[in-house]
Design a protein that fits this description.
Shape: elongated
Number of domains: 2
Order of helices and strands: HEHHEEEEHEEH
Length: 155
């Protein structure tokens, strides 16, 4: 499966910048794996056999939840693209059920970046694109939001 942007580029249109969802989406899965490992280590530190089985069962449940959260984060990140071309801004998310929006760079009125303190430290944030007659589109938790904004506004 190729990238969405490669399929929709018009003749003479060039890809200027491409970004994706930030890796912070993996944090819930990583926390789940840490809990699973901690429970596994805890099962080796207790002596009653019934308590060992409880720790192992909880570790297995935590590992299943962590696997689900990690897979969901990877899949969402894999199926989301955000690009700036020489003519437009393109955002696509989803695999089977796809949601896309495209806005001509000529129609972009403003680009707002919203970053939390952690977002500033880890370089992620939300970008809101306001278009003249096009409405408002918000792209959440993308990597390098300031560079993305600069590629939209710089001409």
């Amino acid at each position: 499966m190729g990238r969405y942007i490669d399929d929709i580029l018009q003749p003479g249109e060039k890809l200027l910048y491409s970004t994706n969802l930030h890796w912070v989406f993996y944090l819930p899965g990583l926390v789940g794996w840490a809990v699973s490992i901690a429970l596994l280590v805890g099962s080796r530190m207790v002596t009653p056999d019934s308590l060992v089985l409880v720790f192992l069962a909880l570790s297995a449940v935590a590992a299943l939840v962590a696997f689900y959260l990690s897979f969901r984060a990877w899949f969402r990140r894999w199926t989301t693209e955000t690009d700036v071309t020489s003519l437009r801004v393109v955002h696509k998310e989803g695999f089977i059920k796809r949601r896309t929006f495209e806005m001509s760079l000529d129609k972009v009125e403003s680009v707002d970046v919203n970053q939390s303190i952690l977002g500033r430290i880890l370089n992620y944030g939300d970008v809101t694109i306001r278009g003249v007659g096009e409405g408002i589109e918000k792209i959440r938790t993308i990597a390098s939001p300031l560079a993305f904004r600069n590629h939209i506004t710089a001409r």
